Amino acid sequence: MNLPSPNVSQTQFSIHPTTRIGHVSLNVADLERQLAFYQETLGLTLHWRESGRAGLGTGPSTDLGTTGQDLLRLVETPGFRRYRGTTGLYHFAVLLPDRHALAVAIGRLFSLRYRNYPTDHILTKTTYLDDPEGNGIELYTESPEDGGWSMVNGQYITRRADGSLSDGREPLDLEALLTHLSEGEPLEAPMPPETRIGHVHLHVGDLDQAVDFYHGVLGFDVMGLVRDFRMSFVSAGGYHHHIGLNTWQGEGAPPPPADALGLRHFSVQLPNREALGQVVERVDRAGVASNQTDDGLLVQDPFENGVMLTTRAAA
């Protein structure tokens, strides 16, 4: 299969290639309702809960026999509300290990009559939904054997494995996906331990400024920028995208007010302290304000999206 090469842009410094997205932290209005949704509808496991906060993930690890890292952290914020037309979270994407796990997740959503939108991106199989408070979620698994996409010369190109073109947003063949389920297989099973946050997709106010920050300061490689779609993808180590950026809320969209529900921050996990230190040094050199917390170094992009820089060991 001959696919166009991604239009990857690298600076002299690139963030460590094994960098990945860690947990996503949200301000929520009703912690009880949100916990019920993420456990019963999505299949996450409650890791801890205390004083209006909670962490969820995938439960015991098969290799360590211990609770895995948090994928999602929720902070109850009474009086906060949802704002529209601002920067912030478009969606966070939960990466499932295979088509069987995605079939279980989508099957559970349909059995509960929970609205979702299964989509075939060729390179990935996915469905989209919102949680009860309007936070966007993508559930997906990789399917590179079916084809791939690239952003070349400002064009978004998707080709199937046979070389034919796709718009990359086809309806997902649910009949084929659900063949991965055994007859009578229970759909209440928790998400498998290999599940993790694959990427986050953010609303920003200006693509160039966003790329300057995530590429020029943090060191993520630019996988492409498509101005007609008003979006750009950046990643570490050649992954299709760890962070999506778009101006779909409008050029110059303002940051959300201080009492907004939604994204508090997402974490960027580097493999070790040396790799983290290189990024922190660049943050300091760029004059970006930062705040050292127990979880890592918290910075904000130019649109007040929070980014927690940490290591996998610390997380």
Describe this structure in words.
This protein is α+β, with helices and mostly antiparallel strands and 315 residues long. It has a single domain (20-311), classed as 2,3-Dihydroxybiphenyl 1,2-Dioxygenase, domain 1, CATH 3.10.180. It contains five helices and 20 strands. The strands form three sheets. A nine-stranded mixed beta sheet has the order 12-6-7-8-5-13-16-15-14, covered by helices on one side. Strand 6 and strand 7 (124-130) form a beta hairpin.
Q: How would the blueprint of this fold be written?
A:
Blueprint: E1 20-28, H1 31-41, E2 45-50, E3 53-57, E4 72-76, E5 88-95, H2 99-111, E6 117-120, E7 124-130, E8 136-142, E9 147-152, E10 155-160, E11 165-166, E12 170-171, H3 174-178, E13 196-203, H4 207-217, E14 221-226, E15 231-235, E16 243-246, E17 262-270, H5 273-285, E18 290-292, E19 297-300, E20 306-311
Parallel strand pairs: 1-4, 5-8, 13-16, 17-20
Antiparallel strand pairs: 1-17, 2-3, 3-4, 5-13, 6-7, 6-12, 7-8, 9-10, 10-11, 14-15, 15-16, 18-19, 19-20
Short description:
The protein has 315 residues and is of the alpha+beta class. The protein is built from five helices and 20 strands. 17% of the residues lie in helices and 36% in strands.
Number of strands: 20
Uncertain runs are: 1-6, 61-66
Mean pLDDT: 93
**Dominant shape:** globular
CATH-level-2 architecture: Roll
CATH superfamily: 2,3-Dihydroxybiphenyl 1,2-Dioxygenase, domain 1
Q: Report the span from N to C terminus.
A: 38 Å
How is the CATH topology named? 2,3-Dihydroxybiphenyl 1,2-Dioxygenase, domain 1
Please give the order of strands in the largest beta sheet: 12-6-7-8-5-13-16-15-14
